[in-house]
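name: query_chain
kind: protein
chains: 1
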Amino acid sequence: MTLPPTPALAEVLATLSVVQIPMRVRFRNVMVREAALIRGPKGWGEFAPFPEYDDPESSRWLAAAIEAGWLGWPDPVRGSVPVNATVPAVPASEVAGILARYDGCATAKVKVAEAGQRSQDDVDRVAAVRAVMGSQARIRVDANGGWAVDEAVDALRRLSAYNLEYAEQPCATVEDLAALRVALAHNGIGVLVAADESIRRSSDPIRVVRQEAADVIVVKVAPLGGVRSALAIAQECGLPTVVSSALDTSAGIRAGLALAAVLPELPFACGLGTVELLTGDVTDDSLVPLAGSIALRNLDVDGDLLERWRAPASREQWWRERIVRCHALLAR
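structure:
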């Protein structure tokens, strides 16, 4: 695998822009998304690990941004990527308005197991999605590891009435995912298990395969260190793969599209439609779905939009210092 070069720190910082873009609704407890953008000779990269992530984990996100800016993308095998709509943990009454933002998407990912909410809230939300999208739509749920095994069995028994495509990271640990797959089979609950955090936040993502803990894997470019690194992990896992995003601007989505476009097979819609969750973007040509897919195209970041969403000087300095620390880890 060709690894991206590590450019000099001064070169990385020379084009740094930090943006703050409000969310339309709360997602992952986030109401304002911050991201640092850098430009290399091949284009724009995005560095946006969540604030709670430590430097070693965050350094992989910097490697992905450097790959985008200094190495570019592998040759694609498809020119567009089908994507899913994303429904945050909102009341059922708000579902229709959220889905209306996603042009032609035939798949929806629904957040469940939100802290402070009831299981009935999840059922109501999924039921509302099914009612809006119809019987032919695909629905997947994402618990972000929020359930214990017994809770997951009970919840998925109820939610399976709405014909789920799969449940993403229903439990937090690989061991619990493996136990859940067995429990679902024993209880006759036909819901596939997808691993997300157990792939992207693990030092050993292949353990999911060794322990037979998932039917599907969800990969995200930035947390895995770039397109080529994520592709290698997907190939080694050998399971059906879904490419997803991490509340990215279009600069980050472009990297996800590059990965989805190079996978030999793409059996599921990808979770790359999340720009619709932001109130703004860094380009006038946002990478959002049209007729259910996003077409591959070059990204032109707009300087006026960078200025419009520019973060305060104190936050820019915070991100600058974070890049300095992460760059030092990559340069070792």
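note: The longest strand covers residues 17-27.
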